[in-house]
Write a structure and sequence with these properties.
mainly alpha, 2 domains, 6 helices, about 0% strand, rod-shaped, disordered C terminus
Length: about 170
């Protein structure tokens, strides 16, 4: 052994070096497990299938430190919650668009939301407020325009259909 390698060999056998080496190895192992745990948590928020979740976690675990980078290239771009919220927003927009295309329940003629009676078959569609005369929806308890309580609801569709058939599709105006 040379003079230079002798102090290095003594330094590597010292208890200080052993402690520093063990702490460094422990730090690297904890960092590796932390990246694998992060991969698992991120995959759980992005992937719904349990088999793919397990596969993504294993990719994040093996090979060490390279696995999470590989996972980041192939992970889904959106969180499952964001996908669910977007689907709910789309359904709400579709409902709003469907409400724009209102039709009479008896003759299926197009009617405006402000119509009280169908102009084609004279079926009563909405009740007018007793105070201000504005059209009221069937479920409303109070008129939103003048705050007057609604006294009675609309007749049921069965009654409307029965009375419409009995009068030949015409109802007497009130």
């Amino acid at each position: 052994m040379t003079v230079v390698s002798m102090p290095l060999a003594v330094a590597l056998d010292s208890p200080d070096w052993t402690l520093l080496r063990n702490v460094g190895i422990g730090f690297v192992v904890v960092l590796w497990l932390a990246t694998a745990f992060w991969t698992f948590k991120d995959a759980r928020r992005r992937i719904g299938d349990p088999w793919l979740l397990t596969l993504a976690t294993l990719i994040g675990l093996f090979p060490p430190f390279v696995g999470p980078i590989i996972y980041m290239f192939f992970r889904p771009p959106e969180y499952l919650q964001d996908v669910h919220e977007r689907d709910l927003e789309i359904k709400a927009m579709e409902q709003r668009l469907a409400e724009l295309d209102r039709r009479c329940p008896v003759c299926r003629a197009r009617v405006e939301p402000s119509y009280l009676v169908c102009p084609v078959c004279t079926t009563r569609l909405k009740q007018a407020c007793g105070s201000c005369g504005q059209p009221l929806d069937a479920l409303w308890q109070v008129c939103p325009h003048c705050a007057t309580p609604v006294s009675q609801g609309l007749p049921s569709l069965e009654n409307v259909t029965r009375s419409s058939r009995a009068t030949g599709g015409r109802q007497a105006s009130e």
